[in-house]
Amino acid sequence: MNIATEQHHFRIETDNDSIVWLHMDNADAGTNVLGSEVLRELDRHLEAIASHLPRGLVILSDKPNGFIAGADIHEFTRIRNEAQALELVRLGQSVFNRLAALGFPTVALIHGFCLGGGLELALACRYRVALEDPGTRLGLPEVRLGIHPGFGGSVRLTPLVGGLKAMDLMLSGRSLDARQARRIGLVDRVVPQRHLRDAARKLVLDAPPAARPGWPDRLSNHALIRPMLSRVLRRRVAARTSRLHYPAPYALIDIWQKYADDPAQMLQAEADSIAHLVKGVTARNLIRVFLLQEQLKALGRDTVWKPRAVHVIGAGTMGGDIAAWCTLRGFRVSLQDQSPERIAPAMKRAHELFKRRLKEPLAIQAAMDRLVPDHKGMGVGRADIVIEAIFEDAAVKRALYQHIEPLMPADAILATNTSSIPLEELCGALARPERLVGLHFFNPVAVMQLVEIVNGKSTAAEVSSKAMAFTRLLDRLPLPVSSTPGFLVNRILMPYLLEAVVLESEGVPPAVIDRAATSFGMPMGPMELADTTGLDICLHVAHILSGHFHTAIPERLQQLVAAGHLGKKSGRGFYRYDKGKAVKPGTRSGNWNLQEITDRLVLRLLNEAVACLRERVVENSDLLDAGMIFGTGFAPFRGGPLHYIEAIGAPVMRVQLQQLEQLRGKRFTPDSGWESLFKTPG
Ligand code: NAI
């Protein structure tokens, strides 16, 4: 069978059983994505294949990293109006409709990621076969971009796995591994690599009936049940996000509730809704966040560095977790502290992390074998990178460096996890200061994506690049920052936290302050954040910063620390803690002006962000926004602090600061950076 269509992003092969194998392999890209050009080519191939009446069609990817990562997000940014958005969505829908309507068996052969539009394509096939491997990930993460599936995803997923399971997957945006996908009926077969092609071939030749869910799952789609389930789903979504800030999940529930019995209408509603959402502020900002993430991921990509052995000094909160994370990512790690007893709790925590993440006993054991407790510091001499995470005390750190430097291999790099000390205060102890770089992880290491790469005046460019490449190997996002006190994230966060303390000492209940921040879009309020970080740590960082920036430290913070109320870890801080949970009294009573509280918190944060940009703590405003989003969770739908200022208008915000300055004092004095900010030409 000779299918003669022009093949640019695809390759067609026909075997002796008359099965067509359609290999997707995006030209000039490392990852398969579905842009309009690719969709049009796919459409032409499907038309040609259909006319040859093969025994069956298998769609697979030639990219080693996965099947299809989703729609082409870059194309979204070029959409100018709803009509263009609608055109793109309709194109995807019509191609997948053609695929779904083919009169012979069709199989998606899935390895690696199969996300968004990629999974929608797989759903348009009659069968799905997935590779049994932890790297196989299936999901519909569109809500994270402020939209929802648009190429028929919700129309096909809900009848396949049941309304409730389908909605849960789409509303959370989470992805499933192959076995989880099999369990809910999303894939038909899960097989190891050597059986992949055979499994697909067998499905085509046997052509069993397409999968159907059991009756409880079918029932969840019933017209009489949907209104009730929709209410439950809306309540669940509302606990996390508001319709005002994140309209997409609510739109998805509405569409399912109204149209689940009528696929044609549901497709239409899907398309109209996406076209509307994609032009909204939330989607535009969330797409911006996605692109910022790509920008950070690209840093360090040009440096080829393959470190093997990592040595971590300090097995406390941070060092212990950094060592565990490096081990999880495949490195051999030695972990040093002053005594074996100090290392033991970190080993226990590491074991728990491995159990949670790796699940398989053999893989857990292999990870434990890679992590070696090393109180004598034997690993220093073999390490490609030494990470120091001991007490935040410059003199203690310097003494350690003097001791270990002669033992380190000549080309090893030394990374410090200091959260606030400029590198210039540390590198004097080194014969070769050019190999010291900051690798500032955030707490908890397994959750926080950002790592600040702190470049001191003497840090060699090559060392900084290696630190970024290493961060990517750890699947974290590197952000290059200059070595000024507090670097970027802590420096910007601190005035916001301190303003919260001032508000609390004025009598505003902590829960009211936190509510003001979370309704602005912060993932956690500043009071709870301070308690979680530890009030002693906050005070320590505040002291270091106030030494440089003359920020007053509220007495209340010092009093709490002096009384031993250190936050969550001591059971009491701004809140009392019961079994690790903050006890928050009701916040409805009282006539607090939430808007004023939010303004005071947020404007201090924004003012510091402007100061950091003026001082070039980071290279540009995009990197600053990325740092605050990935380092603190700053309201992603607002696109980052500087983007938010741009949206509201810098002059308006500066006036607000000036008003607060008159009312509340110098801590609100606008930074001189506001003047040059977003000046319109002319
Ligand atoms: P920690 O007090 O939990 O742990 C420090 C560990 O270092 C202790 O186990 C101590 O025995 C060990 N240590 C001290 N001197 C040593 C030496 N000479 N040789 C070997 N081990 C030694 O401290 P934590 O919180 O883990 O902080 C460590 C570093 O990470 C600090 O520089 C801190 O500023 C930074 N950091 C802390 C964050 C946090 O949230 N705790 C977040 C980001 C950075």
Strand content: 5-15%
| Major sheet size, sense and barrel closure | 8 strands, mixed
Total beta strand runs = 20
User: What would you call the structural class?
Assistant: alpha/beta
The tally of domains stands at 3
Query: What is the molecular shape?
Result: globular
Count of alpha and pi helical runs:
28
Strand order of the biggest β-sheet: 13-12-11-14-15-16-17-18
Q: What are the low-pLDDT stretches, counting only 5+ consecutive residues below 50?
A: none
Rg result: 27 Å
Q: What is the terminal separation in angstroms?
A: 65 Å
Q: Give the second-level CATH assignment, the architecture of the largest domain.
A: Alpha-Beta Complex
CATH topology of the largest domain: 2-enoyl-CoA Hydratase, Chain A, domain 1
- Bound ions, cofactors and other small molecules, one mention each: 1,4-dihydronicotinamide adenine dinucleotide
Approximate helicity band: 40-55%
List the topology elements.
Layout: E1 10-14, E2 19-24, H1 36-51, E3 56-61, E4 66-68, H2 73-77, H3 82-100, E5 106-110, E6 113-115, H4 117-123, E7 127-131, E8 137-139, H5 153-161, H6 163-172, E9 175-176, H7 178-183, E10 189-191, H8 196-206, H9 215-219, H10 226-240, H11 247-259, H12 263-277, H13 281-298, E11 309-313, H14 317-328, E12 332-336, H15 340-358, H16 361-370, E13 371-373, E14 385-388, H17 394-404, E15 413-416, E16 436-441, E17 450-455, H18 461-473, E18 477-482, H19 489-505, H20 510-520, H21 526-533, H22 535-549, H23 555-562, E19 576-578, E20 581-583, H24 594-614, H25 621-632, H26 641-648, H27 650-664, H28 673-676
Helix pairs in contact: 1-3, 3-4, 3-12, 4-5, 5-6, 6-10, 6-11, 10-11, 11-12, 13-25, 14-15, 15-16, 19-21, 19-22, 19-24, 20-24, 24-27
The structure holds 1,4-dihydronicotinamide adenine dinucleotide.
The site of 1,4-dihydronicotinamide adenine dinucleotide (NAI) has 25 residues, from helix 14 and helix 17.
